[in-house]
Structures are given as C-alpha cells and as structure tokens.
Amino acid sequence: MQTLLDVILPVFLVIGFGYVSVWRKLFPVTGIDGVMGFTQNFAIPCLLFQAIAKLDLDSSFDPALLSSFYAGASICFFTGMFGARALFKRDWEDCVAIGFCCLFSNSVLLGLPITERAYGADAMTGNFAIVALHSPFCYGLGITVMEVTRNRGQSATVMARAVVRAMFRNALVLAIGLGFIVNLSGLGIPTVVDDALSLIARAALPAALFALGGVLVQYRPEGDSRVVVMICGIALLLHPALVWLFGTVQNLPTDGFRSGVLTAAMAPGFNAYIFANMYGRAKRVAASSVLMATGISVLTIWVWLILLETV
C-alpha cells in the first residue's frame, strides 16, 4: 500500500496544485487553455516521438500478450460506448468519448512505475511492448469510431476521408507515426535536436497534470456521477479481468501475464481527457473519471497485486 501511495500521491499533488491555482484565481482559466494546448499539440507529441524513435522494437513483442490486452481494451471501449447510450441516453458523440475513457489505461504514468516497484525492472518488457502500441491503437480506434459517428448518414467515401483527415491532423498520431519511421529507418536523432526534444518532453506530464487540475474546476461531476462510476468499473475491474481470462487461455508466461493484467488495471490516463477535449464532447465526464478512477485505483491495484501473487 505504501508503494502505491508513493507513486500515486505525487500525481494527485500536481493535479491539486492546478485545481487550487485556478480555484483561488492565482492562475487564469485562459492560461489553463494555453497549457492544455501546449501539452496536447507540442509537449506530449515530442515525448511520444522521442520514446518510440528510441524503442527496441525487436524485443519480446508477444502476440499472446498484445492480443489479450488489446482485445480486452476493445471490449471495454464498446461496452462503455453502448453502456452510455443504453443506460444514460447520451449523444452518440459523447458515448464515443466515454468509451475512450474505458479504453485508455494510464500505462506510462502509473503502469510503468508500479510494475517496476512490484516486480523489478527486468519484468517490464511486456509493459514496453504494450506502451509502444498503446497510443496508435487507442487513438486509431477512437478517432475512427468518432469520425464514423460524426459523419453517419454520409457515403463510405466521405466517412473514410473524414477518418484519414482527422488522423493526419492529430499531432499525437503524427508524432507516433514519425517515431516509427525514424526507428525503422535506423536514422538517429541529431544530438542537438534530441536535447531540444528532451527539454520539451520533460514538461509534458507535469504540465498536463497541472492543466487537468485547472480543468476540474470548470467541469464538476454534478449529474455525471453514475457515468463516472460505470467508467471506473469497466476500467479498473472489467479490463484486467478480461486480460486475466485471455492470458490464461493463451498460457501467457508469468512476466507477460503480470504486465498485461497490471497495466489493464490502471486508471484511465490523461489522454482520455485529451481525446474528449479534441472533440469537445463529455469533457466533464472524462476529467472527473481520470481523477476519481486514479483515487479508487489505490485500492483496486492493491487487490490485483494480491491476486497476481498466486500466479
């Protein structure tokens, strides 16, 4: 429990700084919008590009691990989307954003440090394999479904163009694609450029968390509590349970099994809000879900760690 608090509490403190700063009018709301734009369009893309460009793509990409994790994630996405429609009568665009909250686990900010502290650095190979495909898969699925939803009633050609246009206008997806190009080409990043990217990338996560705190002042959970509870249940319980099931059926090795289940057990990541903010849909739900699920995950991750001791 102490380990979890050591990892998660600093995240809450940064979010809290952003919340209090805006609440007490020490930092303007317009400034939060600027910080959000910086993280979404510059800092996080630099972080993703640099990480993927340097990733060892040849190391331990286990198809059983990846299929277990992403099959579970996809089921959670559609469960959240259709659940929001059937249970809460939300607009379809809102439903897609809510489904994305159920899809995108916090695989980096929480998943990596918790796995390392629980099982050691040598047990993180599976985590890195999941992280390498996490943003491309999740944004690819989310953007495709959102654009099809927004353009429903149009011809297949119109919908396809809308999806491609949205993908190639998304700074995060472009950064990921460029990272893979640099990685596969074998071209190195010049030292001067790499140092500049590192300076920007180091600001990505703390700035994003600070901005999330400021956003929470604007989007309070009144009227959305039941939707948020549904998201927490799907993200914190259903996803890891599905990975456990699929991993067991495919006889995943112990290290990969633990990495997959534990990563799936993480709360929705900040990208859940970034996606909602991109389309201007269900932003209050996304922001509240990230905060509430991260708090609840202190207990649920502890339970999953106890269960994984039996593997």
Can I get a quick summary?
By secondary structure, the protein is mostly helical. The chain is built from 14 helices and no strands.
Structural account:
This protein is an all-alpha fold. The protein is built from 14 helices and no strands. α2 (29-53) packs parallel to α8 (171-185), α2 (29-53) packs antiparallel against α10 and α6 crosses α12. The longest helix is centred in the N-terminal third of the chain and has 26 residues, at 63-88. The radius of gyration is 19 Å and the shape is globular. The mean pLDDT is 87.
Question: What is this structure's SSE topology?
Answer:
Blueprint: H1 2-23, H2 29-53, H3 63-88, H4 92-103, H5 107-119, H6 125-150, H7 156-169, H8 171-185, H9 191-202, H10 204-218, H11 225-249, H12 254-264, H13 271-279, H14 283-308
Helix pairs in contact: 1-5, 1-10, 1-14, 2-8, 2-9, 2-10, 3-4, 3-6, 3-11, 3-12, 4-6, 4-11, 4-13, 5-6, 5-12, 6-7, 6-8, 6-12, 11-12, 11-14, 13-14
